[in-house]
Specification:
Layout lengths: L4 H133 L6 H4 L2 H9 L3 H6 L6 E5 L7 H13 L5 E5 L6 E5 L4 E5 H15 L1
Parallel strand pairs: 1-2
Antiparallel strand pairs: 1-3, 3-4
Helix pairs in contact: 1-6, 3-5
């Protein structure tokens, strides 16, 4: 078998040229394109990773901000609720204090009203009792309306201070008031009875005073001695009012 070295050499040269051409115009551009695309893919992946990280960072920041807002909102709500409770307690305390004050004032007013009514009723009752007693005493026998009070008048004069007793009648007649006009000899009887405690019968200026109801009243420049029912009724009425 004869080898055509020339032909073989040409084929080899052609193959080398073909490989060079392919490497020059096909493999290198393809490799470059592949490398560029790989770089672009890596850049895209890097950008995507950066975007993902940025998104996660933004999401974390948004979550933290949302949590902070929620915590602040909860804090504000708690503070508002606490303030509302404090205000409620304050208003309730003021309402209770106002109610207690109004209740106390109402109680005091009611007690005053009751006391006033009781005092007025007592005064009315005392006045009515005095009027009834006066009407009953007005039915006493005429003689008893004077003679029954002579000794009591003398005893009341005897209880006066010595200087006052000594002055009775020394400056002229003293006034003697009687519940009815005195009968003959009654004025003299009264003067003599008074003389037993004064040492001398005083001169009397007799006046009639039906308002006394029953009894006698002796008026001197320095003292008034009463022994009659009107004075007793007035004392009873005053005592009832004072006691109430």
């Amino acid at each position: 078998m004869t080898i055509d070295w020339w032909t073989l050499g040409l084929q080899t040269v052609n193959a080398v040229i073909l490989i060079w051409i392919l490497a020059r115009f096909l493999f290198r551009p393809v490799s470059r394109i592949i490398a560029e695309r790989q770089d672009a893919a890596h850049a895209a992946l890097d950008a995507a990773e950066a975007a993902r990280e940025e998104t996660e960072t933004a999401r974390d920041a948004a979550r933290r901000e949302a949590e902070a807002l929620a915590a602040d909102h909860a804090r504000r709500i708690a503070e508002a609720q606490a303030a509302a409770e404090d205000e409620k307690r304050r208003l309730m305390a003021e309402a209770r204090a106002a109610a207690d004050k109004a209740r106390a004032e109402g109680k005091r007013d009611l007690e005053k009203l009751r006391a006033t009514q009781a005092r007025e009723l007592s005064q009315e009752a005392g006045t009515l009792a005095a009027d009834i007693a006066a009407r009953l005493l007005d039915r006493l026998p005429e003689e008893a309306r004077v003679t029954g009070f002579v000794d009591g008048l003398a005893e009341a004069v005897a209880e006066l201070p010595e200087a006052t007793r000594a002055s009775i009648g020394s400056e002229g007649p003293v006034t003697l008031r009687a519940a009815r006009p005195l009968a003959d000899g009654e004025a003299q009887q009264i003067a003599e009875r008074l003389g037993t405690v004064l040492g001398r019968p005083p001169a009397l200026s007799v006046e009639t005073e039906p308002a006394l109801i029953a009894g006698l009243e002796l008026e001197t420049p320095h003292a008034i001695v009463r022994n009659h029912f009107r004075a007793d009724l007035d004392r009873i009425r005053t005592e009832l009012a004072r006691h109430d």
